[in-house]
Amino acid sequence: MVSTENKPQVAMVGLAVMGSNLALNIESHGYSCVVYNRSPQVTAEFMRAHHSRNFVAVESLAELVKATEAPRKVFLMVKAGNAVDAVIADLLEILQPGDLIIDGGNSHYSDTARREVLCREKGILFLGLGVSGGEEGALKGPSLMPGGSRQAWELVSDLLSSIAANVQGKACATYMGPGGAGHFVKMVHNGIEYGDMQLIAEAYDLLKNVAGCQPNELSQIFGEWNRGVLSSFLIEISAQIFDFKDSEK
Fold it and tell me: Is residue 135 annotated as a catalytic residue, yes or no?
């Protein structure tokens, strides 16, 4: 049982790798966290691995709502699509006005806009949260792109800023705008990133198969690029990958 005087401040629905890592990130910044997965076995495995930390496990959404401090801040880290709608429908039956749902999955921005209206009609706040940085970013500091009601953002701005990546003293988390703005920005971000990845792949193909460059030469070339105007995380890790040697087995 959770004491009504000291309830966890945050809840996490979905404990696959992104949800688990985001929960660990949140807890590491001083927030207690209720965790739930539709498969009790997944929740149990998470708690076995992190039993000494400030988590409370529950076996149903009803228990999650009872266990979390109001106004509740419920993160959804579930597969985009029908699963998100199903969880939101269940939560709307048991949450109280002023509570907040945060969809941190890769939902389409039009779905996010629709869900924000649905929640608002029930008195529930809603944020569509773009999360960039992958598994490691979720754990150590992602770039966060929240969109929805400004009231919802203000409720969790300190929390999101604390768990986000920090560049030159500034948190990589800022309000993107109403409706589905957060997930729209994440979509644009992904489009740019995947375009960069395609360009890197084509440059690699030309250098390797036309110019005949060896891996060590590719590493040097990409390393030089990373020290100039092309400097970026993707160029940096490409240089590192070319320098990596597989074990001989």
Answer: no
Q: Do the Cβ atoms of 94 and 62 come closer than 8 Å?
A: yes
What does DSSP assign to residue 74?
A: E
Is 140 annotated in the active site? no
Backbone angles phi, psi at 204, to 5 degrees: -60, -45
Q: pTM score, two decimals?
A: 0.88
CATH topology of domain 10-178: Rossmann fold (3.40.50)
Q: Rounded CA gap, 128 and 115, in Å?
A: 9
Distance CA 101, CA 61 (A): 13
203: which 2 tokens? 């440059």
- Alpha carbon distance 87, 68 (integer Å): 17
Burial of 30 (0-12, 13-18, 19+ CB in 10 A): exposed
The percentage of the chain sitting over the pLDDT mark of 70, rounded to a whole number, equals 97
* Active-site residue (options: 193, 208, 217, 236): 193
What integer pLDDT is reported at residue 123 of this predicted model?
98
Within its chain, how far is the Cα of 55 from the centroid?
A: 18
CB 92 within 8 A of CB 98: no
Tens-digit pLDDT profile for residues 123-136 = 999 999 999 999 99
Determine the Cα–Cα distance for residues 66 and 179; give it in Å rounded to an integer: 28
Q: What are the sequence ranges of the domains in the chain?
A: 10-178, 188-242
Sign of the CA dihedral with 58 first, then 61, 63, and 69 last? positive
| pLDDT one-digit tens code per residue, 192-205 | 999 999 999 999 99
Instruction: Mark out the alpha helices in 77-214 (DSSP H runs).
Output: 82-92, 109-121, 134-140, 150-163, 181-209
